[in-house]
Structure prediction request, 239 residues.
Amino acid sequence: MRIFAVELKLLGMSAKCEQCIVRELSSLKALNKDEIIHLSNCKDSYEVKKGETIFSEGDTMNGVYCIKEGTCKIVKMNSKGKSTILKFIKKGELLGQRSVLSEEVSNLSAVAVEDMKVCFIPKKELMTFFNENNKFSLEVTKDICHQLKEANEFSSNHTHRTVKERLAFTLLHLYELAGADTDGFLNIQLSREEIASTVGTATESCIRLLAELKKADLIELTGKRIKIVHHNELRKLAN
Ligand SMILES: Nc1ncnc2c1ncn2[C@@H]1O[C@@H]2COP(=O)(O)O[C@H]2[C@H]1O
Prediction:
């Protein structure tokens, strides 16, 4: 088993939590002033490079990560060693609260798809906030309920959509997650293999279907970059 977090690069200077985007966007918004000061003093900040693993399946979670910058993928490996990307987690979100609360080892891995900055909140502090601050525990519960709903929708999408429909859905989802750069290309750099594992298909069939979408003028492809040309048409296809 990996020892949680020690392999990531510890950042020298730790920023305070008061103005942090994760505090604004996540359940941490329910913490009071004293708790936020305590959080600033007990958390550690890390740099995670693209491709580095934050935690793996089977790891014991000794705390949760706050995503300050960058995006990671949540990956599940099957018995044949094939991985599926279940979700992308972006800046402002927390990572690992399900395993910490359930006291189970992690059943998923988290891997950076771009350079990230994350903070680590130890389990002991998190559980003190959880037990002493009702508003915070309600917010965490709401988050986990929302994630359960998402997980249900994900599995229903995979069951009822064709591969092409899932690819259209994934491209729209990536646009929602990351937006577009000034040239209109998706603002997240994923390999064709990563797109295929998000869609749930082989890389070759993903490449073939991307070419079909391009031929139908729904998307533009330049090297690894993808631009959605007709959002409405792609949305019709995804549904
Ligand atoms: N839909 C989702 N399915 C699984 N994990 C999710 C989802 N959304 C967010 N997550 C986060 O990803 C984390 C993976 O590790 P945990 O299961 O401990 O906690 C999970 C949540 O913090």
